[in-house]
């Protein structure tokens, strides 16, 4: 696991952007950085207005999360009342497992902005994993895992209003995207579950740690980078925005990888509905409040 720093996930993603200049050629450069690394860094964020300005220049629309305020930003902090509740781990002080934001939605938001207002006393490091590196490791050592995890019904994410989806999805032109959560709101088919140890080992080997200071932020490609958090003490406060990329960023779907599924692979569940191998949404989740993110109006 990499040591903690504030230099991004790759060691070469050195560009820092301020909200005020994210326009024209600078915004195009931000799109290039996002395309290459799946991440870009923000600096000199003076407060909520700066975060909204950055989000408005990078995103064509904001998503209204279950926990968001009316302006679309979500305050990520210890609320003192959500500890131990399924689907609310981010609103406590404990560690937050690596995940895709809004994995239970048919189309999770593409961009995730995290801005630090208060860093807390100890802990609270942001954890990041690049799915491009995970896929490369699986392709080299566990290719059967990719085929199983790429099945159309490899996993069910969410509660009663959740969604069946591949964990690793092959798109067009050799591009991919990853969808994952690691809590009680994720259930995997027998075929996919057999390969979860290989997936989790690959994820763990590529964790990068990032401690944001007040005024610093990051923007992630939510279809490529998993994010999580270490436990913390003190008053940590993060502002979060979710949305779709502005067209000026030129961000194409997914991320490239030097591997593809065999052309004979068909992404359907080979078992008829109702058989023992069928992955069904469990009845015990019917009472879980896991309402999906929903888009708001465009900027």
Detailed description of the structure:
It is a single chain. The chain has 299 residues and is α+β, with helices and mostly antiparallel strands. Helix content is 19%, strand content 29%. The protein is built from 6 helices and 21 strands. It has helices at residues 24-37, 48-58, 131-141, 143-149, 190-193, 196-205, and strands spanning 4-5, 16-17, 39-42, 59-64, 74-76, 96-99, 111-119, 122-123, 126-130, 155-157, 163-165, 168-170, 175-178, 186-188, 207-210, 217-221, 225-229, 232-233, 236-245, 255-256, 294-298. Strands 2, 3, 4, 5, 7, 16, 19 and 21 form an 8-stranded mixed sheet that branches. A 5-stranded mixed sheet has the order 1-15-9-17-6. A 3-stranded antiparallel sheet has the order 11-10-14. Helix 3 crosses helix 4 and helix 3 (131-141) packs across helix 6. The longest helix is centred in the N-terminal third of the chain and has 14 residues, at 24-37. The radius of gyration is 19 Å and the shape is globular. 43% of the residues are buried. The model is unreliable at 1-12, 264-278 and 281-299 (pLDDT under 50).
Provide a brief overview of the structure.
By secondary structure, the protein is of the alpha+beta class. It has helices at residues 24-37, 48-58, 131-141, 143-149, 190-193, 196-205, and strands at 4-5, 16-17, 39-42, 59-64, 74-76, 96-99, 111-119, 122-123, 126-130, 155-157, 163-165, 168-170, 175-178, 186-188, 207-210, 217-221, 225-229, 232-233, 236-245, 255-256, 294-298.
